[in-house]
Description:
Number of helices: 12
CATH architecture of the largest domain: 3-Layer(bba) Sandwich
Bound molecules: flavin-adenine dinucleotide
Radius of gyration: 22 Å
CATH class of the largest domain: Alpha Beta
Distance between the termini: 39 Å
Structural class: alpha+beta
Helix content: 25-40%
Number of strands: 19
Strand content: 25-35%
Amino acid sequence: MTLEQFSQTPIAPQMQYDYDLAIVGGGIVGLTLACALKNSGLRVALIEAKPYSAAAKKGQAYAVHLLSRQIFQDIGVWEQILPQIATCRRVCLSDAEYHRVVEFQLSDLGTEALVYVAEHKALLLPLQDFLQGCDNVSYLCPAEVIETQYNPDGVKISLSLGTESRTIRVRLLVAADGARSRIRTDAGIKTRGWQYWQSCIVAFVKPEKPHQDTAYERFWPSGPFAILPLPGNRCRIVWTAPHEEAKALVALDDERFLAELQRRYGDQMGQLELEGERFVFSVQLMQSDRYVLPRLALIGDAAHCCHPVGGQGLNMGIRDAAALAQVLQSAHHSGEDIGDLQVLKRYERWRQRENLTILGFTDFLDRIFSNNWLPLVAVRRLGLWLLLKVRPFKIFALKLMTGLGGRPPQLRERF
Ligand SMILES: Cc1cc2nc3c(=O)[nH]c(=O)nc-3n(C[C@H](O)[C@H](O)[C@H](O)COP(=O)(O)OP(=O)(O)OC[C@H]3O[C@@H](n4cnc5c(N)ncnc54)[C@H](O)[C@@H]3O)c2cc1C
């Protein structure tokens, strides 16, 4: 029987459930969903393959949008996150050597931050700690999903927990297992998208002068270049360039790499000093054809991936998690089956289109700025001029970039 046929199948004798739902993937997105379901009355299993301590070692850093802050506040974990992250009060946008720079200020939104910047562990550890106080969540870690068997009334999941194996039965399986989601592939959900012609170089640097809580995004014909402030006067570089150029850049010795870096960003913060290693990531745009099937929902990178310009990817995943939590809690409180396709479709209708808008926006930004074709240069200079001179246009762009343009999840009223 295919997954598609489930909704038409008469209900089989009730399965004995170990949990109401299982979330596969204890990255930031999976953890956000588990934490958001505290006090929901739902019993949750969170399954993560990497050992507890190893999960925080990922050397990534993210722009965290205002709507993500709101979600963490509603969950009750923001107070633990805030001391470890940078509050960005100014964002400067510029186009290669063009002399006009668009500056976004706090007064543009009337908020105390435009965006926040956090290292992976600054988000992951407070979420993991918060989970300790969630009596309804069992953290199965390290544990890996070996097999899934979908039935009309539930999912049977075979797990490997080191030397042991175990089977659990749930009403709903949520895949938060990242871009290469095995759960998505095994369920036969197709994806659309492409690999970009660019790779992304990331590194931590320490500037000579204070970064003054300012983020710079500069668009070069080879790709967008961002330098984001972090606590302790450190910064994160997110630098996209065509594959061969990116490979050649990371292969340079520190001195020559820093010289190239300085050429891209200028000297607003004086000399830069490299901290730790630099890494290259391939960059892709991907959208799953479906976010849900009977008894299955996809969230985060398992459902979509985008170009790093504008720092959208993780924020989209956090919004997925909050939206799904809201849909599941409402369904549970009104006595509906949380694995039913009609319930899950509410989540898909909400998130799939919004995410597609963001994917289109990041793709548009990358394409329009990453080239030197004169008509496009003229169009984007006009865009920068509009951002400088037409305030409603500037506010609209800022809201789109910070996630304030979409439908916000309402978690607080349910706690
Ligand atoms: C260079 C670069 C820069 C970026 N910058 C930003 C930024 O500034 N802002 C932003 O919002 N986003 C950014 N992103 C995107 C962001 O990194 C991702 O969107 C985000 O990490 C996705 O989180 P996730 O929890 O969905 O997936 P992941 O972080 O991939 O987590 C998946 C988890 O599932 C676990 N797992 C996998 N398979 C199994 C299994 N079978 N059983 C159990 N567990 C399993 C893994 O161990 C992992 O912990 C950037 C991405 C790149 C590449």
